[in-house]
Write a structure and sequence with these properties.
170 residues; alpha+beta; 3 helices; 9 strands; 17% helix
Length: 170
């Protein structure tokens, strides 16, 4: 029985890998709403446009491996913050894409002629507010930042896709 299950799982993985196009790159609009749900689901915030920030979602996929980067600009265009992830993307039925990934949160500050990158950390005194520290290189961002988990589901209609994603800090 174990051999049959393993064979079916392996055959399914091969079919998914062969059915997907080998390479895909996408750029899209992104709207992010940051809402705490630990004290209940905030339905009034979900329908309020002022609760959202807008930015860009970049995705690069090679077979089923996906690298994604999302970022939103502040109202003054001084800060870009988001999450960069690496994970898997599984196309289902030629119409639906399901993906999961993990990676660091980041913040980039644009000040006159200087661009400074910051890593996200959780302040133990106030975990609801995001806190950042400056990094000297990208490696420090990868090793010291809070890791986020991201899941997304997209419906593909030709060359367009419409999706929803959820990212959760660890």
């Amino acid at each position: 029985m174990k051999r049959i299950v393993c064979a079916v799982v392996l055959a399914s993985m091969v079919c998914v890998a062969l059915a997907a196009s080998a390479f895909s790159f996408g750029v899209g609009n992104y709207a992010r709403g940051s809402m705490l749900i630990e004290h209940g689901f905030p339905m009034n915030e979900m329908v309020n446009p002022a609760s959202y920030q807008f930015g860009t979602d970049l995705r690069l996929r090679l077979d089923f491996i996906e690298v994604a980067m999302t970022g939103v600009l502040t109202n003054t265009n001084e800060y870009l913050n988001g999450i960069g992830t690496i994970g898997v993307n599984l196309p289902l039925f030629g119409l639906l894409d399901i993906g999961i990934g993990m990676g660091p949160y980041y913040l980039v500050h644009f000040d006159n002629d200087e661009v400074v990158t910051y890593r996200h950390f959780i302040n133990p005194n106030d975990s609801a507010n995001w806190s950042y520290r400056q990094v000297d290189n990208y490696g420090e961002l990868l090793t010291d930042s809070v890791v986020g988990y991201r899941a997304h589901a997209d419906v593909r209609l030709g060359n367009l896709s419409f999706g929803i994603s959820l990212d959760v800090p660890s």
